[in-house]
Records
---
Amino acid sequence: MTDAPSIGPKFTQRREIRSFVLRGGRMTEGQRQAWETQWPRWGLSVEQGVIDPRVIFGREALLNLEIGFGMGDSLAQMAASHPEQDFIGIEVHRPGVGSLLKMIDEQGLTNLRIYCTDANEVLDQCLPDASLDRVMLFFPDPWHKKRHHKRRIVQHDFVQRIRHKLRVGGIFHLATDWENYAEHMLDVMEGSEGMVNNVAPGSFAPRPDERPVTKFEKRGERLGHGVWDLLYRRTN
């Protein structure tokens, strides 16, 4: 019997600035039904405290976390393509959570769990240190106006939250279609303790095959938008 998972340095100060805005919008009937029927099985809450992924999933496997999965299409695709791995998704937009729950039910996925809350609360209160093999942050809100840059989720404090939850050797994978935000991400990541560029110092990465191309990304490509991927590995 191994020891219960630990939860390490806590970043408990309540932050006044949030990196997201709760969007409006009603759930569709299908999303609502999925929430009511599937959330009790696949949903996780901060009130549960620190989880043991081995207990949650009933096995020991590579563990992936996606922060801000939107409507859930890419996360469901990754979970379906890699049944030997486990996935946790975090999203504050309830229709998106309902959408992913609907896909879980329709596709019979068993290797996926969901939080519907602020990612920082999950990182601070729920995930054991050194428990994640990969963290994914795809197309977060770019907060493109200069006066809003302080709202961008990729900041040094946030990266250290991620670092402590990754295993040594684990990967933090970021992607954005805003060049200015890509440059901001690169600057923050290059200056982050315990993280090293998995490609080369100061370099963006080619899109890894395991990141699905989303409808959002395809639309951006049609409009001539670029996409920048960054891969960083925890070193200590």
Note: The chain has one domain: 48-234.
---
Amino acid sequence: MSEINRIDEVEEILEQICENIPEYAYDNLNGGIILSEETKFHEESVGDSLVILGEYRRDITGNMIKIYYGSFMEMFKYSSHEELYERLEHTLLHEFTHHLEFMANEYGLVIEDKKFIDEYKKRYDK
């Protein structure tokens, strides 16, 4: 079966979502929003069972949000446009929340994400 290429659709959806995000949310997001073609697996993943759809990154190049197109295609390749939109919106808003919490010196979502990983690991620790 040939690979379905939806990268143009994903780019278009991300642009639509970004238009609805308030300007203040972009403050200090100097690395912008990057759509990477890679599929990224979480470092705690057992096999290839836990993909990373997006992440908020802070490093020497700046603060940025990365969305992993390959990961989205791993999970949602055959999803409708509407479902893909919802999944991308959820992921992008999640990463913006990380950014805004970091700027406010709050880490509620980091704690929530850690709890998710701890629960995931419990399923494989037997």
Note: The mean pLDDT is 93.
---
Amino acid sequence: MTASDYEEAVRFYRDALGLPERAAFSSPDGRVTILEAGRATLEIADPGQADFIDEVEVGRRVAGHIRVAFEVDDSTSATRELTEAGATLIAEPVRTPWNSLNSRLEGPAGLQLTLFEELS
């Protein structure tokens, strides 16, 4: 991710979201911080399914072509903590048909985030 406000992005994703710092490098041209985000999966959806997911989680189509989802222990608390840390709330946590409690945020650098808590 390229962030024009590098410090804010690092503070949010490392300190507020809690992604551990793996490494950091700098050059005369800039800086990069690598954060550990755990195991990743790539979810590929066609436009109809993407519309459905947005409708369930937000009530309308809002996501761009990339949205990052993070599993959290308590979606309600994590949503509140991250909005207090600077994220923009798009949608409060909602129970989904796939039995999770999902919220939607926009984080630094315009990255759309889903926070999900598995309920079963």
Note: Residues 6-118 form a domain with the 2,3-Dihydroxybiphenyl 1,2-Dioxygenase; domain 1 fold (CATH 3.10.180.10).
---
Amino acid sequence: MTVRELRLVVTAADYEEALRFYRDTLGLPERAAYSSPDGRVTILEAGRATLEIADPAQAEFIDRVEVGRRVAGRIRVAFEVDDSPAVTRKLEEAGAEVVAEPVRTPWNSLNSRLEGPAGLQLTLFTELEAEKEES
């Protein structure tokens, strides 16, 4: 048995707002869109997918590092971006609430936390590994 794709399915009360935010502002390319008399769905590409499993203690530690306190629910979506401070500003201008500004983490990435459309808590992260290797 082989899993070929991880697809996170989000139900958004304001479908158009969520689509504008994730596709148009964050820049996730549209793979496909379907509609029926019963509704609509759009599938957006998000690069490589991983499933990160954390126990409650580690989830609390991540929140303390990124935000300073426990704020995430059971699900948080993390996007690797080239410039987390710039993307944080861009998403804030598009209506996301900044929960925490970018911070350097112990695992050498620059992470910010936002509340996005459809009630998703988002981490934006930029890996700083190349910077570490150049030093």
Note: The CA atoms of residues 21 and 94 lie 7 Å apart.
